[in-house]
Amino acid sequence: MNAARYEGHNDRHERIEFLGSKEKPQSKRKLGAVIGVLLAVVILAAVVAFLIWLFVFKDAGEASISQQRKPSVLVFSGHMEMPDLKYQEKLEDTSSPEFQELAEKLESVLEENLKKDPLLATYYTKSVVTAFSEGVIGYYWSRFDVPVADREVVPELSEELVSETLESGIMEQQRTRSGSKIKISEITATFTDPRMAREPRANECFFRLEAGEMMSSFSSPGYPSGYPPKSRCQWQIRTSATNVISVTFPFFHVEDDCSDDFVSIYDSLSPDDSQAITEKCGHRPPSNPLEVVSSGNIMLINLITDTMTQRPGFLANYKALRKSEVKTCGGVLSESSGVFTSPLYPSFYPPAVDCKWTIKVEAGKKVRVKFNLFRMKEPGVDIFECHKDYVQVMGKKYCGELSSLALTSNTNTLEVTFHSDESYTDKGFSAEYVAYDPGNPCPNMFACASGICIARELKCDGWNDCGDMSDEMKCKCDKEQFNCGNGLCKPKLWVCDRVNDCGDGSDEESCSCEENEWRCGDGTCMPQDVVCDTKTDCEDGSDEASCKTSPGICSDFSFKCKSGDCVNKVNAECDRVNDCADDSDEAGCNCGTRPFKLNRIVGGQNAELGEWPWQVSLHFLTSGHVCGASIISEKWLLSASHCFVTHDAANHVASNWQTYSGMQDQFKHEDVQRRPVKRIISHPDYNQMTFDYDIALLELSEPLEFSNTIQPICLPAPSHVFPAGMSCWVTGWGALREGGQKAQLLQKASVKIINDSVCNVVTEGQVTSRMLCSGFLSGGVDACQGDSGGPLVCFEESGKWFQSGIVSWGEGCARRNKPGVYTRVTKLREWIKKETGV
Ligand code: 4AZ
How confident is the model at residue 282, as a pLDDT? Predict the structure, then answer.
């Protein structure tokens, strides 16, 4: 940026000198020459002063000012119907004389009508008819240019003004039969991104496609090497009147920021927002392809690219589907259990569809429906009203993105209706239903009010297992529980642990410290002035953990810059803010990101491909998967010592191990990178009895190639704080239950960081400062055998994932009051750096 500014400055100097020499007076008289030189000097000084002001003082606001200097371009697009015209196929060809003639006529009708409004007339530039389809429907856009001086009128140039002007214009023309003889029965106008306004007759990156029963393909320009910047491409797709169009994108990789580059898809031939199917950017994995369907026989796809960063673009397959196939949905479901989905699921459902399912089970039974995925998101929709697309059950409408939705009927019949309007579609839903006996809705389990069944032990355990709190209502607290102010019961261990477990704060009130005292994370009281005094007074360091500023002072909780300076800020590393003068806090931050756009299947615990790109599977000789590990650089993996230091010396032999990165399914090796191990470094202080220092580093014999599914995790600085109560994720192919089989598909589980003093109590004092607890005291979610060595990762506000722990040990798996114990990475960060340089 500095360089650019300097060049600009130079440019102008050169121009000044040039101008000056040109204006040098030609007179030979001395006085004249002196006056001339003086004048030139004065002018030169004035211009230099102006330039200094321009570049030095005005620079700060330059970007916004240049933005303001730009005239506003407003574009409205829509369609019009001409009932008296006979449709001819030649109208589909933009180069045919028929198209040209009708387009020109309509463009003049648009101009004539829009100019009837004085405000629109002032700024009107042009109208362009872009296509025709059966009906006869014409698609167009109109453009208005507002100069900088008139910018304040922009809000007045509204969608309403344009559409009302056009509507009253065509009505007037019908009455008087004036202007063109073409009868227009209906016209729409919607505000449109000017980048979408294409001139089809210019034929530049503009394509007309016909969808047939056989699948055909098209791709973005330059695919797969990369699309050029400033692309404005459009694909108009049509099919016969009895069909609809299906487009799937087996490959889709467009810039991540949708404001720069994106693909927008319309259920129309004009980029009319009211008929948008979807707008997408980013990178989609093969497990989550974009699949859309039109409601009628036309579709428009736009590609807009603005960034210089090249991405491969997309490959699209398109074909015609019979309308009757797509729009038939719903029906009567009379089995005792079953599955039903929105039309075309997991493709996007088509616009303008209505379905009704009637679930009718045996008399005397009731119906429970559980939505495993529910996604009907639409811009500008209030999810309490759901006035656009929705699912309706027992009079209530549901829309948006729901993570858990389970409903029960009052009788043996339940009706589920689905509605999609003309604009914006989404993945829809997948639901399962089951008939149940109302006298015994959840045999041997607890029935939540939502209809879900949960293990009986989970009732009144302090955790909201039902999702609607119904398992935590009407509880009688036992002697090990605390009675919250709102009637809930929580384990006494959670009182005064700085986490508002009750929800009403009652478990954190009247904790023993006086007003002028600080309560440490473990409950100890300290004088208030120990806080942020750069000395660790609380055993858990909580008195120094959240100090915002005390520049120049170093404590255990300061981030140490490469220069040796200290930054007293919580989690300063890789937070996208340069805190160190040498920027070392933001160095080595190419980590902890997931390139793929993920498909969030809610409730399931199977991980998706690319969801945890730092996860590695370690195979030992012929035993297959044995332990997990995480990628910390191209050449280094992080794992647990206990995977390698055992009674069997073979475990410590590097050549007995293989590492698999980019894996999700143990039996699928496509795009998986296998690397032998060159060297195993176990921590010299690892203690086989206590599992203290349970950490090991694996050097790979060949570096990894990072990809969408293979990425390094960020390692936290020693000062990094993962507070108690924080939700983190543990992943692995370990046993699905204690003593059970290992998983074939990578599993993920959300677990909470547990307060150190609670951790110490529940492990009966077996944790050291190199360990941390994470999980749930109620049990049910945990790492297990085979997950060892794998990562516990936490998502930070900076948008990056950091590894807080390494799966180490625990008493059994997922038992009550027996959370998982992990190696505390922050405590061993310096050892990792010393051994690997990472
Ligand atoms: C194991 O044996 C193991 N519940 C790993 C984690 C846990 C228990 C056992 C934590 O590898």
Answer: 86
On whether the CB atoms of residues 784 and 642 are closer than 8 A, the answer is no
Cα separation, 83 vs 681, in Å, equals 79
pLDDT tens by residue, 795-809: 998 889 999 999 999
Cβ(772) – ligand 1 distance below 6 Å: no
Residue 462 Ramachandran class (φ > 0 left, ψ -120 to 50 alpha, else beta): left
Locate the ligand 1 atom nearest the alpha carbon of residue 813 and give its number: 4
User: Ligand 1 in contact with 813 (CB < 6 A)?
Assistant: yes
Average pLDDT rounded to a whole number, residues 334-344 = 92
Closest atom of ligand 1 relative to the 821 alpha carbon: 10
Question: If we measure between CA atoms, which residue out of 558, 554, 571, 835 comes closest to residue 716?
Answer: 571
**Token output for 623:** 């035993």
* Nearest by Cα to 698 from 657, 664, 734: 657
pTM of the model: 0.62
Q: Give the CA distances from residue 58 to residues 52, 61, 121, in Å, rounded to whole numbers and listed in that order.
A: 9, 6, 36
* Ligand 1 mutation target, pool 730, 737, 807, 823, most atoms within 8 A of CB: 807
Residue nearest to atom 3 of ligand 1 (CA): 785
The pLDDT tens digits for 382-400 are: 888 899 999 999 999 999 8
Smallest CA-to-CA distance from 825 within 685, 750, 715, 728 is with: 715
Q: Examine the pLDDT at 698 and tell me if it is beyond 80.
A: yes
Quick check: 304 pLDDT over 90? yes
Catalytically active residues, by annotation: 642, 694, 788
Q: How many CA atoms lie within 13 A of 299 on its CB side?
A: 29
> Which amino acid does the sequence have at 439?
G
Cα angle for residues 113, 116, 122 (degrees, 5° grid)? 110
Closest-CA residue to 133 (of 94, 165, 169): 94
**pLDDT for position 545:** 63
- Domains of the chain: residue spans and CATH: 3-66 (no CATH), 71-194 (3.30.70.960), 204-323 (2.60.120.290), 329-427 (2.60.120.290), 615-836 (2.40.10.10)
If you measure from the C-alpha of residue 809 to the centroid of ligand 1, how many angstroms do you get, rounded to a whole number? 4
Whether 810 is in the pocket of ligand 1, judged by its Cβ within 6 Å, is yes
Residue 145 is predicted with a pLDDT of 94
Q: Which atom of ligand 1 is nearest to the CA of 815?
A: 4
| DSSP symbol at 373 | E
- Span from the CA of 725 to the centroid of ligand 1 (angstroms): 21
Please tell me the distance between residue 443's alpha carbon and the centre of ligand 1 in angstroms: 31
636 has which bridge partners?
A: 699
Percent of all residues in the chain with a pLDDT value above 70, rounded to a whole number: 86
What is the 3-class SS of 276-344, one letter each residue? EEEEECEEECCCCCEEEECCCCEEEEEEECCCCCCCCEEEEEEEEEEHHHHHCCCEEECCCEEEEECCC
Ligand 1: which atom is nearest the Cα of residue 627?
11
E-strand stretches of 504-614: 517-519, 525-527, 559-560, 566-567
Q: Which of 809, 811, 816, 822 to mutate to test the pocket of ligand 1 (most atoms within 8 A of CB)?
A: 809
Q: What is the mean pLDDT of the chain?
A: 84
Tokens describing residue 765: 């004092």
Give the tens place of pLDDT for each residue, 63-98: 333 444 577 899 999 999 998 888 888 999 888 999
Would you state the pLDDT for residue 418? 97
Alpha helices per DSSP H over 519-678:
542-545
Whole-angstrom Cα distance, residue 344 to residue 286?
18
By C-alpha distance, which of 627, 628, 630, 626 is closest to 614? 630
pLDDT tens by residue, 531-569:
877 777 776 666 766 665 445 567 777 888 998 888 877
- Predicted confidence at residue 178, as pLDDT, reads 59
Note the pLDDT tens digit of each residue in 478-533: 887 888 888 888 777 677 766 667 778 888 777 767 778 887 766 678 888 888 77
